[in-house]
Amino acid sequence: MFKIGELAELAGVSKRTIDYYTQLGLLEPVRSETNYRYYPEESFERLQLIDALKKQHLTLEEIKERLQIIQSQPDAADEIVDKIEHLQEEMKHIQEELL
């Protein structure tokens, strides 16, 4: 479990970004008895997936929809990640050709 600052540092984003994603429902913290927010380790992976989807020019609403699909259909997550990786490779090759 990570505190918000720890997760932000690990993921290379601001605490404000994590707050915003939490408000949008993209991340789900667990509240402690003292009302601190703790984020499970899966939150880091989720932030990486959000970043990859943003690089595909998806809106945060579209990303939220995809994350909901992943939650409801765990097998879909592997397909989405594979597709993202494939698209990133294609983009990399296209950029290399342009240079």
Question: How would you characterize this protein structure?
Answer:
- The protein has 99 residues and is mostly helical.
- It has one domain: Multidrug-efflux Transporter Regulator, Chain: A, Domain 2 (Orthogonal Bundle), CATH 1.10.1660.10.
- The protein contains five helices and three strands, in the order E-H-H-E-E-H-H-H.
- The protein has helices at residues 4-11, 15-24, 42-55, 60-72, 74-98, and strands spanning 2-3, 30-31, 37-39.
- A three-stranded antiparallel β-sheet has the order 1-3-2.
- Strand 2 and strand 3 (37-39) form a beta hairpin.
- Helix 1 crosses helix 2 (15-24) and helix 4 (60-72) packs across helix 5.
- The protein is globular.
- The mean pLDDT is 87.
How are the elements arranged and paired?
Blueprint: E1 2-3, H1 4-11, H2 15-24, E2 30-31, E3 37-39, H3 42-55, H4 60-72, H5 74-98
Helix pairs in contact: 1-2, 4-5
